[in-house]
Amino acid sequence: xxxWGLLDNEASKPKYLTDADKAECYGADTAExxxxxxxxxxxWVLRKVVGSRTQFETLVAMSSGSMGADVADFDDDSDAxxxxxDDDTVLADS
Length: 94
Known about the structure:
By secondary structure, the chain is α+β, with helices and mostly antiparallel strands. 15% of the residues lie in helices and 22% in strands.
């Protein structure tokens, strides 16, 4: 069993995270990396608020070009109606 998946959904988040950390873990695609200061790599990122600063830690760096068609969901915003799996409320695409 893999420790993380390639799709931007709850089941694919890194398995070793606590429930609290899973709530702040997001799948970042190319557009989100370019549009969000502090997000430095595609893949799974953990958002932490420390005082007045927001920090992003890359947990699993992934390249969408090397992962094939399975990663297409990282770029898919059709899950916008389900906030628990929609990262676009936190990571903007542009």
